[in-house]
Amino acid sequence: MTRIRFGTFLAPHHPVGEHPALQFQRDLGLVEHLDKLGFDEFWCGEHHSSGWEMIAS
Length: 57
Description:
The chain is α+β, with helices and mostly antiparallel strands. It has a domain at 8-44. It has one helix and two strands, in the order βαβ. Strand 1 (7-10), helix 1 and strand 2 (41-44) form a beta-alpha-beta unit. The radius of gyration is 14 Å and the shape is elongated.
């Protein structure tokens, strides 16, 4: 029997003016927590034309 795989998607919406290093630190903490919970995949989106974001297209 095939095991069901689970993943999650993070839309990279962060508070304007917050230091990017803190944003990455928090996001990586979430990824580590999801890994401990047994998630198989993590996807992080990027925005091409919606204003400022820390992940450029």
